[in-house]
Amino acid sequence: MRALPPRRPCAVVLTSVVALALVAGTGPSAGAAPAASHASSAGRAAPADATTVVAVAGAGQSFGGPATLTTAAGTSLLSYYRQGPGVARALELQRQVGTGTWAPVALSQGGLDTFGVPALVEDAATGRVLLTASAQASADVAGTLGTYLWWSADQGVTWSAPVRVWNSFGVGDAAPDGAGGFWTTVGETDALIAHVPADYSMQATPSGATRLTDKLGSRGATGLVTAGPARTPVLGFFTTAGIYAHRGATYDPALDTQVFGAGSLGTLLGVAGDTTGAALATSHTPSYAASGTTALWVRGFDPTTGAVGAEHRLSTGQALFFQLRSLPSAGGLAAIWRDNGDSDLYVARASGGADGTWSTSRVIDDEADAVSYYSHLDVSAGWAVGLGNRDSDSTAVVWAAEASPQTIDPTLASKGRAAYSSKKGTLTIRSTVNTPGRLKAVATITAPGRRPTRVTKSVRAKGFGTYTTRVRLPKAARALLRSVPKARIRLTVTFASSAGTVKVRPNVRA
């Protein structure tokens, strides 16, 4: 990851409705939806760093992928394939260390000339970085088709020649098993995985493949990781009935857990896993309604028990081209998406798993950037990457943008008028915030010739979600409001985050 100089906070407005009530508060409910509005471009700060164009297509060429990884040691890698005139398909790799620029790394093609989307992963058991992809040589498809592995023991400086680890169709992914080997998704249909041992010996179809479930026939979106202390395989997959996760490496439909309901989109699926557990991400409308914003949602998954956590909404608007990843050294989760409302790119991070506190930052402002049509996104601890077109001439490029955690300036707005119930003696305040922090309400009850009575309550905002708490006024204050016609409630709500404090004064409705 880049060594970053000190920087002023980057202002980002991501609104979410938070109903506060300031005594017995409830946490964010499942399905809580942020407000689907965006600030004007004039009110937003430019991205912290300009997008870096890492690779430019030649005439008639295009790119596939890309995949990125920032290792535990801080080295960032980026792989993609190039295709078009002058090259059938070539797998390329670039490397970046510290504050240095991206630089190409020599990668043996081994006679292969057709590649699928690559994958990068760090194997903590061996310290190696693994680059995998499906590939073949067009002159000998039958003899070369398979999943291939390149590995590096020196943080991506040098790489092995391609090693054929599966001898047929495959996705080209790798999920380390904790003992030097890895699992990979194979076949063109069905829920099939294969285990590659630590010596990277080739596994053969059909005997080397394990079918996990009967729920998956033709294959839609899938994702394979290993998770939990035992590095249990977790295969996430889409069906018309919803998004499921299978835990373990044996056939048993009883080990399938439905993570998201019917109505989830099946074109993209994010699956992440580390030693603490797994998480899945998809896009669907709130409460899976027939209409509404297809936002990005994430949910935790226990690879041992199959238990799932609450759904957490990450995107304000419709999420396009998203991805979910685990960060190295149990560093938490990172999600990236393009928001269809403003075409900007956002990254959200959480420590403590999917049920932890998510912090969101905008990493690319579409209007201020020199690249458009962002797609095929990936994210690591250091970088957000993807494909796009250069604005100046529409040439296809591979880009990278710094994705280090940034502080979001807090925003706060009253959501309608606060409501006072004389029957219950309670005051309910609704506010809109954009980031984790603490909301504090100060209610002051005044009347002519009387000393003011002040009540202060606060609640922690974890981020996106709906919170309902209520303030019960003291008996004397309630009596004053009943008996004195000119008695009034003055209300101040303050929202404080690590980046600053903002304040509003909502009106009160009796």
UniProtKB/TrEMBL annotation:
It comes from the Bacteria. The keyword Signal applies. Residues 1-32 form the signal peptide. The keyword Signal applies. Keywords: Signal. This is Exo-alpha-sialidase. It comes from Nocardioides oleivorans.
